[in-house]
Amino acid sequence: MMEQCMLTKNGIPVYSYPNQHLHSFCLCMYVKAGSMYEKKQENGIAHFYEHVVIRNINSLMNGQFYKVLDRFGLSFNGATYKEFVQFSISGAAEHWNEAAEIFVKLFEPLALSEEEVATERKRVKAEIRECEKKKSAERRMEIAVWKGTSLTQTIAGKKKNLERTGKKELSEYRRQFLSFGNLFLYATGRCSQENLEYLRELLEQSEWYDAGSKRMNLAPVPENFFHRSIEPVLIKGGETELAVSFDVDTSRYTDAMLCLFYDMLFVGDYCPMYQELSEKTGYIYSYDDRFERYKNLGSLQLNYEVSSGKLMKAFQRTMEVFRKMKHSPGSLEYVRAIYVDNGDMALDDADDFNWNRAYDCHILDEEYPDIEKKKEAFQRVTEEDMARMAREIFRPENMVVVIKGNKKKIPVEKIKGLIRTLAE
């Protein structure tokens, strides 16, 4: 079984990776849009448009959208990321046609009223207000890592931008959003050739536009990327919170290497970070980890809350994990299994498989024509690859440290001393 591509007469690419053994399907549309591509004065427009276009479908269906979804047991969702927007619809295979008829309404012009746009604006502003209350170390780190670029912008944007974005502005943005080369559809799960042909017929009645340039998922490069100061960023706050980030040149490594490196550090109960910070010491209960990744650059991130009295001990353990990875990264077999032994299990969840295939192959442009090729790529990675990556990534000049808490009690010089040990 391999990925297939169908191109409609009007040029819309539809990728598919069917699995007739499932009872469900998942149909998604991916658009290369989001805060990374937005100017300061329009920041948040992709996220706002995602909200409005779903409300527009309800308007086009005379207010029956959610009723129809429930009637056919369908699930419809939208999500905006920094570099793309996803819409998805999923359900039982026998309701593919009904789902497709709803889904293509994403291409329809905005028919909802200014009052409905205003209502959705209120909802998004409430979402922004909730996010603004969270003055976390993680958010401050994001600003420090991507300083001077569009990647410091939030996905939801600013309330003042929303205030000047009405139906007219959204309709103009629609031409940019539905643009040639920047969107595609992906179908997974139980979908037949007949189903795909029906979708083609519907899409060929849809309109989209020539934006002039194809978006390549290349992150803007901050001026101090790979040239960081060891001075930690301090934030005044109640609970003590630590966030660290490492700059990564993602173009130097394969997708398999990047995934396995991240997993070796942070994923699973046996991974060294969890063992050292929680299981063995009890310094923390859990942590948040993230790899903000683009085709050219990435940011490997970790943050956790810790009692002020255990801050130095926790940070010391954290640094020990990073240093040990340079020489003794451990066995890959504990993280490789989910990609190799369990590789075919990805087909069992049409929704997750859809997201992962689309992201890997058409956002990051990795060449995995089928699951077997991906498994082979992960088999080729060695422990020495992991050690080499650690030596290249875990350096003081690549590291950003943010600490939230009582500034007077944060031992800055000791923190800097531990950061310097990465150069040894």
Automatic annotation (TrEMBL):
<dbReference type="InterPro" id="IPR011765">
    <property type="entry name" value="Pept_M16_N"/>
</dbReference>
<protein>
    <submittedName>
        <fullName>Insulinase family protein</fullName>
    </submittedName>
</protein>
<dbReference type="Pfam" id="PF00675">
    <property type="entry name" value="Peptidase_M16"/>
</dbReference>
<dbReference type="InterPro" id="IPR011249">
    <property type="entry name" value="Metalloenz_LuxS/M16"/>
</dbReference>
<dbReference type="Pfam" id="PF05193">
    <property type="entry name" value="Peptidase_M16_C"/>
</dbReference>
<feature type="domain" description="Peptidase M16 C-terminal">
    <location>
        <begin position="168"/>
        <end position="328"/>
    </location>
</feature>
<feature type="coiled-coil region">
    <location>
        <begin position="114"/>
        <end position="141"/>
    </location>
</feature>
<keyword id="KW-0175">Coiled coil</keyword>
<dbReference type="InterPro" id="IPR050361">
    <property type="entry name" value="MPP/UQCRC_Complex"/>
</dbReference>
<dbReference type="GO" id="GO:0046872">
    <property type="term" value="F:metal ion binding"/>
</dbReference>
<feature type="domain" description="Peptidase M16 N-terminal">
    <location>
        <begin position="27"/>
        <end position="157"/>
    </location>
</feature>
<dbReference type="InterPro" id="IPR007863">
    <property type="entry name" value="Peptidase_M16_C"/>
</dbReference>
<comment type="similarity">
    <text>Belongs to the peptidase M16 family.</text>
</comment>
